[in-house]
């Protein structure tokens, strides 16, 4: 991804935007040229010519007013269209990561990509590009104006042009690095804010709310320091550029004055020489500084170049298909390491079709690790996992997710309608939804809501218990109708009587393979399991 990608992709909107930028520069040029001619008519006592040129200047400025209005609309439309395209590509890249690599960054980091980093791209990329194009066109028109006055003026312009183009190179690399640095510090700040506020209740109960201020201010200062550091470098660039610009404008005025005294240009050209020289050298000052800022955007885009997961989350090209669960899922000498620590060591387990399994063990023994490994969420260090004799390393992970429903203690509830949370946007028969509501004790609760299934959960989030959230997640998995159901402590928050009835139903489904982990393994349902796997 680069900025060029989106400029081309949204070429129609950008062409309209470019047209109005061109009109702006044309108006700047005509305003200067006509003003120069008008001053010359005053010196020559040409009233008719002066009035004619005054009318022309008025017409140009009226067009300029229209341009300002149209450019505002065109620029915002083009920028928003490109920002939407960037968001689409970032989301597609995130989708392609798979669960393993997705978890390598925090949700707040991805949020920062889609919000703060995109705002930086807008500011330093698209809006800076608009300034650069406008400045470049203004410079070109100003050079044309000087050529029309006297070609010798171009030599003075060339000397200062070369000087101003080469000076910013001293600052460019440093600015690129510092721009990336402050976006990284911004990610850290967003993550710190999210982490601190997520623990508000816990901090309040411990009378430690001052921790919010301490942590957020700590990361805020780091972010502020990175922005100040960037601004110092940018300020150094601007001071050097502006100093050179001031000297160049004085040089151009002096050159034009000498030409006038030698009767080589009219007085109007002298008065306009400072106008056009300020356009050229102020434009060069802005153009070179803006270009240095503009180049920093490519570094930000590099953050979005995401690779797919290894093993089952690599590209699906040349992968074996697993259309339907037929026989078994088998662990053969599987070892899993996390952060240098062995979580599972040389595990051999066979999960057979339509059987019910419970996994029991102390905290940290690897119960959830087994479930996540089956679901392709964590890589294995040694050994093999076979799905109907297909090695996980050769598995098309989309096929994996067509066969497995996974319900965990941490399942997310979307800020959408209850219906969406049950179906995730899939078309499901009303009769099946009604059955799920009954089986998971959701019907009475939903009947009490004014909008029923269309109730947006974000509007009543404070009124949803952990047990209700778990029942929604279980109903969602039930409606998926996949042959394998993994339940990772996803019934622990449900009251005892309902939990027993729900678990009894789940473990009685003859056409479902169930793998179950819970801290509350009820004695009454132990007989429903074909096997209980004990971990040390």
UniProtKB/TrEMBL annotation:
Subcellular location as annotated: Cell membrane
Topological type in the membrane: Multi-pass membrane protein
Keyword tags: ATP-binding, Membrane, Nucleotide-binding, Transmembrane, Transmembrane helix
One Pfam family per UniProt: ABC_tran
Stored InterPro entries: AAA+_ATPase (IPR003593), ABC1_TM_dom (IPR011527), ABC1_TM_sf (IPR036640), ABC_transporter-like_ATP-bd (IPR003439), ABC_transporter-like_CS (IPR017871), P-loop_NTPase (IPR027417), Type_1_exporter (IPR039421)
Domain ABC transporter positions: 329-536
ABC transmembrane type-1 domain residues: 18-296
Principal cellular location given in the protein's record: membrane
Entry superkingdom: Bacteria
Residues passing through the membrane, by range: 16-38, 50-69, 139-165
SUPFAM superfamilies (alphabetical): ABC transporter transmembrane region (SSF90123), P-loop containing nucleoside triphosphate hydrolases (SSF52540)
GO cellular component, one term: plasma membrane
GO MF entries: ABC-type transporter activity; ATP binding; ATP hydrolysis activity; ATPase-coupled lipid transmembrane transporter activity
SMART domains on file: AAA
PANTHER family: ATP-BINDING CASSETTE SUB-FAMILY B, ATP-BINDING CASSETTE SUB-FAMILY B MEMBER 6
Protein name: ABC transporter, ATP-binding protein
Source organism: Streptococcus australis ATCC 700641
């Amino acid at each position: 991804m680069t900025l060029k990608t989106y400029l081309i992709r949204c070429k129609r909107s950008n062409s309209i935007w470019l047209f109005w930028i061109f009109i702006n520069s044309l108006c700047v040029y005509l305003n200067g040229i006509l003003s120069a001619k008008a001053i010359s008519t005053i010196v020559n006592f040409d009233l008719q010519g002066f009035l004619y040129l005054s009318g022309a200047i008025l017409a140009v400025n009226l067009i300029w007013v229209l341009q300002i209005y149209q450019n505002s609309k065109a620029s915002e439309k083009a920028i928003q269209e490109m920002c939407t395209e960037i968001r689409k590509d970032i989301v597609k890249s995130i989708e392609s990561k798979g669960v393993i690599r997705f978890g390598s960054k925090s949700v707040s980091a991805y949020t920062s990509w889609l919000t703060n980093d995109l705002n930086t791209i807008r500011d330093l990329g698209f809006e800076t590009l608009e300034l650069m194009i406008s400045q470049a066109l203004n410079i070109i028109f100003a050079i044309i104006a000087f050529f029309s006055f006297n070609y010798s003026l171009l030599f003075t312009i060339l000397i200062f042009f070369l000087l101003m183009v080469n000076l910013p190179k001293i600052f460019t690399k440093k600015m690129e690095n510092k721009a990336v640095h402050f976006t990284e510090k911004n990610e850290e700040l967003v993550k710190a804010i999210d982490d601190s506020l997520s623990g508000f209740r816990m901090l309040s109960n411990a009378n430690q709310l001052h921790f919010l201020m301490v942590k957020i201010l700590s990361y805020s200062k780091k972010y502020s320091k990175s922005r100040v550091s960037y601004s110092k470098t940018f300020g150094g660039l601007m001071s050097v550029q502006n100093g050179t610009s001031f000297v160049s404008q004085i040089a151009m005025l002096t050159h034009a004055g000498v030409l006038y005294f030698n009767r080589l240009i009219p007085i109007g050209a002298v008065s306009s020489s400072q106008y056009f020289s300020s356009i050229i050298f102020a434009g060069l000052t802005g153009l070179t500084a803006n270009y240095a800022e503009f180049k920093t955007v490519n570094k930000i885009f590099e953050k979005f170049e995401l690779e797919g997961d290894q093993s089952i989350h690599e590209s699906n090209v040349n992968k074996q298909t697993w259309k339907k669960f037929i026989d078994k899922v088998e662990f053969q000498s599987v070892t899993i390491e996390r952060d240098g620590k062995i979580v599972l060591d040389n595990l051999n387990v066979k999960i057979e079709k339509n059987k019910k399994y419970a996994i029991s063990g102390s905290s940290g023994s690897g119960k959830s690790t087994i479930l996540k490994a089956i679901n392709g969420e964590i890589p294995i260090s040694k050994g093999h996992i076979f799905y109907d004799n297909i090695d996980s390393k050769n598995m098309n992970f989309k096929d994996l997710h067509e066969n497995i429903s996974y319900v965990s203690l941490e399942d997310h509830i979307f800020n959408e309608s209850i219906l969406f949370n049950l179906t995730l946007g899939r078309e499901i028969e009303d009769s099946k939804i009604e059955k799920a509501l009954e089986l998971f004790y959701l019907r009475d609760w939903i009947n009490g809501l004014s909008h029923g299934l269309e109730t947006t959960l974000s509007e009543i989030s404070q009124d949803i218990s952990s047990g209700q959230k778990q029942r929604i997640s279980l109903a969602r998995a039930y409606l998926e109708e996949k042959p394998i159901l993994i339940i990772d402590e996803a019934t622990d928050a449900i009251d005892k009587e309902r939990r027993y009835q729900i678990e009894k139903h789940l473990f009685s489904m003859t056409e479902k393979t169930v793998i179950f982990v819970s801290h509350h393994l009820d004695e009454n349902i132990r007989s429903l399991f074909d096997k209980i796997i004990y971990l040390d």
